[in-house]
Inverse folding.
């Protein structure tokens, strides 16, 4: 066992594995602790007067939020942005809802102006949604609310079991986090499997999050309240097969495929039809 061949073979295995472990930690860190993005759009740009509020999660994280009240409406919609952006990123996509509903926007943990160190792809973001629900309850909304989520925000809305959420609109959600990461790293070929395995190990070790358990499609199967899925057929970032899987898990869900739309382009491609469908869905189900 002390031969030259063994020593060489041992090094050929050990050092590449060590290097791979290092790269997996780097990639995990970049994804779990993303660079902060703060968009330039403000509700005032659309003629709205928001109330700047702070939400507090059950695990003690403070979230930055805007509450946009409606003068007469009694219904409310919680709006959830995608990764790794902030609440301003979905403002232009959803501001039309302010015509008929009270709106609550917030930055997920570890994004925008909110506290928190790790972004967990939806696993802990459900606590952020719970904090948004608690805020609406404190403002007198007792009969539930709707929730809109884009990309990771949509996945988080599906993962939430909060009964206060009575209707869900999901724009380009992923069906499961492990599958989405596999898609993101598909260009790595045969090397992506060990890389992802190590990233999942780091996630469990450093955050206590089992990536394989973050499965919005599985969660959707247990949701009895209305779901509207919107997905572009040209989405290469989160392919439309994700919404198809969610639809298969919950056949009662409505699936609208927008022709020619990429990730984040459904409103731009569908225009007035997007606004009409989403407004009608929330009006009917809240």
């Amino acid at each position: 066992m002390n031969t030259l061949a063994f020593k060489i073979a041992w090094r050929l295995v050990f050092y590449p594995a060590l290097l791979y472990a290092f790269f997996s930690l780097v990639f995990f860190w970049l994804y779990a602790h993303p660079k902060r993005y703060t968009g330039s759009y403000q509700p005032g740009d659309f003629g709205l007067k928001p109330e700047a509020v702070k939400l507090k999660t059950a695990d003690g994280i403070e979230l930055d939020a805007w509450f946009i009240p409606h003068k007469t409406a009694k219904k409310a919609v919680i709006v959830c942005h995608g990764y790794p952006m902030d609440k301003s990123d979905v403002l232009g996509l959803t501001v039309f809802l302010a015509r008929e509903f009270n709106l609550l926007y917030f930055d997920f943990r570890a994004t925008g102006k909110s506290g928190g160190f790790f972004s967990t792809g939806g696993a802990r973001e459900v606590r952020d949604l719970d904090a948004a629900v608690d805020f609406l309850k404190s403002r007198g909304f007792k009969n539930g609310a709707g929730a809109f989520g884009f990309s990771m925000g949509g996945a988080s809305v599906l993962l939430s079991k909060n009964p206060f959420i009575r209707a869900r609109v999901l724009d380009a959600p992923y069906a499961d986090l492990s599958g989405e990461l596999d898609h993101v790293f598909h260009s790595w070929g045969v090397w992506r499997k060990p890389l992802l395995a190590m990233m999942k190990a780091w996630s469990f070790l450093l955050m206590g999050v089992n990536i394989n358990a973050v499965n919005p499609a599985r969660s959707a199967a247990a949701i009895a309240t209305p779901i509207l899925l919107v997905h572009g057929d040209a989405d290469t970032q989160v392919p439309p097969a994700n919404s198809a899987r969610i639809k298969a898990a919950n056949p009662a869900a409505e699936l609208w495929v927008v022709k020619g739309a990429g990730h984040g382009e459904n409103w731009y491609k569908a225009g007035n039809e997007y606004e009409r469908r989403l407004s009608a869905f929330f009006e009917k189900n809240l």
